[in-house]
Amino acid sequence: MDFDVDGCSDIGRIRTTNADRFLVGRLWRSFEVLSASAELGSLGALPGSDGGTVLVVADGIGSSDFGHEASALTVDTIIKSFARPLALGQAAGEMNLEEELIESLAQILIDSDARIKSEAIEHPERKGMATTLTMAFVLGSRAWIAHVGDSRAYLVRRGEARRLTKDQTVAQALVDSGVLDPDAAESSRLKHILASAVGGSDAHVPEILSYSVTLEQGDSLLLCTDGLNKHVTEEKIGVVIADAPSAREACRELVRLALDDGGSDNVTVVVGRLGREG
Description:
By secondary structure, this protein is of the alpha+beta class. The chain has helices at 67-82, 94-122, 170-176, 182-187, 226-229, 234-243, 247-260; strands spanning 3-10, 20-27, 30-36, 45-47, 53-61, 130-131, 133-139, 142-148, 152-157, 160-163, 198-199, 209-214, 220-224, 267-274.
């Protein structure tokens, strides 16, 4: 099936550093980087497994100025992981394949976490650097998602955006436990404090959330950092992606809207669309 996919990132109107990173890659006898953050864009094709498309967004965080290092290390780890044979599709039966994919994606996040923490040990000035990570692997009409942090994945179907992932923030944890009202959480400063991340403290183990979804013809998958959803509503996201003639145009229009509304953070989006209806 035709899967039109692209991504883009912008530093925003206020920040002086872009700590976001994104990646779009395709596996077909090699791992080919189709679109990526600027400093990753020249990697070309690497030996890898056959089949599937990889979509990634990562938002570097931390008390230091090294959040961008954490997100870049994570994307580099993902590239190297997919450049190794994953033996996808070799499992006997759909359920085994599903389990293998979820375990493989989770292991990549675990490897990324270990690499960031190892780098911080070697370079103490980078202690505490961390990143969010939302990664999707699309094979045919199925998508599997591994997620840590408060970047997001959305399914856009017939002009409506439905969030697939849960924000791992202190505010959301309080909502889940019944302590905080969902409306109050939207304006709480705790909304911006992560409860889980890739990297960070040595004592912290990231909670990896896994999801899967079946795509229909005309569906789109959106991955984004919080610089988008701070400024663009889910309703607007659905309309923009439905109306855009291509994934590339959808990405650029979403980023433009975030910037026009203030661009208070780095903003990064990746859009993948499965064919077009009619």
